[in-house]
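Query structure, 263 tokens:
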């Protein structure tokens, strides 16, 4: 299997520390850092999870450094502040975009190399790397395209095979889904956090576990979903496998990658 991930990436930076008092200057906690952990985030986290699940994977993403820095209290595990740096990226190179067609990649800077792919994951965090027309182009010119986007949905996404969004994103798109003629609703997989997920009116639950961090859990779900679908062509089985992957990573601190051997 070969899978291609396309989308914007960042560095997830977790600063862990202790909060033992309130500042005398303002009603805010005084945070004393004690530890630091960094991971690839957004599209690169999807990429890393696909790789951890044993698939051959390539990524087309931005080169500039977006940083999501989270300050987390050691005792409670609660995030007290998030600071995003350089929160944008240049648009995908049009020549690279046009090279993603017919489920093949005309490789980066080497037009003589063609890599065939089994599925495409669009991980769009709406930082500027992909515009609606770019996603539309990929969906129209390829099969097995899975889209996870922060954009307001519309007709531009109707050629995607599956659309993964979370519950909050579903609510933000309520006006779109109120239109009964919008066929995109049949392609929706809606993640519901601790309640599992919903697909075509059916809800798929997950076991209760001790959750340490949900950061990047949606990326893991998406990776597991696509890997299993390419293997089985069964979306329900793929949903259940993706949930097993997500259940594993939320029990770890920070942005974690799924471990195939522990599933």
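Result returned for the query:
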């Amino acid at each position: 299997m070969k899978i291609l991930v396309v989308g914007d990436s960042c560095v997830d930076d977790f600063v862990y520390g202790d909060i033992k008092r309130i500042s005398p200057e303002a009603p805010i906690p005084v945070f004393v850092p004690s530890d630091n952990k960094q991971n690839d985030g957004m599209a690169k986290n999807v990429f890393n999870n696909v790789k951890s699940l044993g698939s051959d994977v390539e990524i087309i993403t931005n080169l500039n450094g977006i940083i999501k820095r989270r300050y987390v209290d050691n005792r409670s595990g609660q995030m007290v502040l998030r600071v995003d740096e350089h929160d944008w990226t240049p648009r995908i190179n049009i020549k690279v975009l046009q090279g993603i067609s017919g489920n093949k990649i005309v490789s980066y800077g080497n037009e003589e190399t063609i890599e065939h792919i089994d599925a495409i994951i669009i991980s769009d965090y709406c930082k500027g790397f992909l515009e609606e027309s770019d996603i539309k182009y990929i969906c129209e010119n390829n099969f097995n395209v899975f889209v996870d986007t922060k954009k307001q949905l519309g007709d531009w996404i109707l050629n995607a095979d599956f659309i993964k969004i979370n519950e909050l994103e579903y609510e933000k798109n309520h006006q779109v889904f109120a239109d009964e003629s919008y066929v995109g609703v049949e392609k929706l997989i809606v993640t519901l956090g601790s309640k599992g997920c919903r697909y075509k009116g059916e809800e798929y639950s997950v076991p209760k576990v001790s959750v340490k961090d949900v950061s990047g859990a949606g990326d893991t779900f998406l990776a597991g979903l696509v890997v299993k679908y390419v293997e089985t062509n069964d979306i329900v089985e793929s949903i259940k496998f993706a949930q097993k992957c997500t259940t594993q990573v939320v029990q770890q601190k920070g942005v974690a990658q799924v471990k195939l051997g522990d599933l």
